[in-house]
Amino acid sequence: MRGRTFVFGSSGFLFRSNKLMYDQQTKSLWHHLRGEPVVGPLANSGIRLTPRPVVTTTWREWVQAHPSTVVLDIETGHRRDYTPGRPYGDYYASPDTMFPVFPRSSRLATKDVVFVLRLDPHRKLYPLAVFDREPVVNDTVGRTPVVVVGRTASRTARAYERGGLAFQPGQGPGELIAESTGEVWQVEEEALVGTRGRRLPRLAGHLAYWFGWFAFHPDTPVYGR
Known about the structure:
Layout: E1 15-17, E2 21-23, E3 29-30, E4 37-39, H1 59-65, H2 89-93, E5 113-119, E6 122-127, H3 130-133, E7 136-141, E8 144-151, E9 156-161, E10 167-169, E11 175-178, E12 184-187, E13 191-194, E14 199-201, E15 205-209, H4 210-216
Antiparallel strand pairs: 1-2, 2-3, 3-4, 5-6, 5-15, 7-8, 8-9, 10-11, 11-12, 12-13, 13-14
């Protein structure tokens, strides 16, 4: 399983990844979407990593919100080309997969990007195209009221608990407004923060290709479908 994003807490393991994710202690291979070891000494051990919130965004949007961020130099000393759009630029631009994948579903295009909200054992998918018409989604997953905030252009999505509130867009990408009270809430990385100091925690979620997620979690409900 190819991947480029870690979406789990390390639970004491040190990981490396190029095309496969493995821990340096036992060299076991780990499934990127399930967070469990599938080959090696830890396979079938029952260990499973805890999902964590992950955000994908543009450098412009990130640095506006976090101007003191430090960035790794793309000049790594290795031959691999890490300039923007590489090393998988051609693959991301193609509608095809690198290898046969089964099962498949025609509910979405093969490589449509979805935001996966993970409230184990409950999960739900939000196609990025949803955020063009609905940048703030008030929803319920399992028994948890949630709000998902996204922007299609930058492939950005974050999810939070919303308590008994419903939200609408604020004056900018960093603000939400509670519909019932008019209170302004700040969209931060760890939580939504209200003007009275109340905090609504961030929830675990990340982006995935539709074909990849469906192959392993075909029963996951899709928002708006």
